Amino acid sequence: MAGFFYKLKRMKKRWWVLIGVGLVILIMILANLLNPNRNAKMVMVEEAKRGDIIETVSGPGTVKAKSEVSISTYVLSRVIDIAVEEGQEVKKGELLVQLDDTQYREEVVRASAGVRSAEAALEIAERQLVEGRETFDRQRSLYEDGLISKAEYDRSLTTYSSLETAYRQALSNLEQARALLVAAQDNLSKTRYTSPIDGVVTRINVEEGEVVVPGTMNIAGTEMMVISNMGVMEVEAEID
């Protein structure tokens, strides 16, 4: 009899355990069903507006200055001084390259002497022309008065015409001499190269002692260096 009551007691405990577990599960189900936010999701709301769509791409390419100035020679000479280095910042007007100017200084001296000589020759021709004009006017007056022959008058006219021609030639010679002087001075100025812009020396292509040659219609002259304005850059890239 005692064994029967013991088994009955154990069966009661098991049922209470099962009932308890069932109640817990029922409460969880009801709580889930009664929760209004069980399926809620976080949503960000913004006002619609016009904008840029940015897409990132990649590819091989190069970055370089948008503005570059090539410093090339305009005269045949030899480099005697490179005043800057690659990567150096320079200001507008700063010395970059000095070429040997010996030959061009001598040309300026000769051209200056030529101008002085032509000026002196023109002065003489002008004086002779004035004197010749006076002589011709007298001879013409005498001829008109019948005091000299036609042959004498013609000789006077020929002499005066020759003086006019000599004066015009002297004037032309002076103009040519002055043009030669201007050209010589221009060539001399082209032996000294300064930076035309504020920038950076990005490339030097010559060495001191090297002979540089000017360009022609079909052949480019010696590019001595490149100055770049690094304030504005541009990219050249290959994009698939």
Structure description:
- With 240 residues, the chain is of the alpha+beta class.
- It folds into two domains: 63-100 and 193-240, RNA polymerase II/Efflux pump adaptor protein, barrel-sandwich hybrid domain (OB fold (Dihydrolipoamide Acetyltransferase, E2P), Beta Barrel); 101-190, Helix Hairpins (Orthogonal Bundle).
- The protein contains three helices and eight strands.
- The strands form two sheets. Strands 1-8-6-3 form a four-stranded antiparallel sheet, with no helix packed on it. Strands 5-4-2-7 form a four-stranded antiparallel sheet, with no helix packed on it.
- The longest helix is centred in the middle third of the chain and has 43 residues, at 102-144.
- The two termini are 93 Å apart.
- Residues 2-6 have low confidence and may be disordered.
Do you know the CATH topology of the largest domain?
Helix Hairpins
Structural class: alpha+beta
**Helix-strand pattern, N to C?**
HEEEEHHEEEE
**Uncertain residue segments:** 2-6
Continuous helix count: 3
Helix share of residues?
Answer: 40-55%
Query: Mind describing the biggest β-sheet?
Result: 4 strands, antiparallel
**Straight-line N-to-C gap:** 93 Å
Shape: elongated
Number of domains: 2
Overall average residue pLDDT: 85
How are strands sequenced across the largest beta sheet?
Answer: 1-8-6-3
Task: Write down the CATH class of the largest domain.
Answer: Mainly Alpha
How many β-strand runs?
8
What is the beta-strand fraction? 15-25%
The CATH architecture assignment of the largest domain turns out to be Orthogonal Bundle
Radius of gyration: 51 Å
